[in-house]
Amino acid sequence: MSRLTKRELQILALIAQGKNSYQIAGELEITAFTVRKHRSNITRKFNLHTTAQLVSFSINYSSPQIAIPSDIDITQPDSLSKREKQILHTLSLGLTGKEIARNLGISPRTVGKHIENIKLKTQAQSLAALMKLSVDIARKDNEQA
Question: Structurally, how many domains does the chain consist of?
């Protein structure tokens, strides 16, 4: 496994919190270009090809040290439909919208609409926040089982 620099570890943890490149740049007081360069290095080191894979990797790599971003209402997953829960679960696996659609036999546009609905119901602001929520729900379910 490739070794990450201290800065790459910081960026990975912030990605796992649902922050975008500009938010990370502001927090670390570096340029967005530098953040993107570090993200590129991380994806190369771990053979990640999509943003979804990077976010999933960052959540699994950084968890459980990181907390759920404050913009997520974790009490809302019970209000999700069966399909929305299914899509939320697949997000944590790092699948793209097209991959999820292919696996579920629905259109990518339908997946996108479900993701919009999930964001509204959970008040999550980013895909990373939804993926973190999914991972935390799965952990909670496993602990109860």
Answer: 2
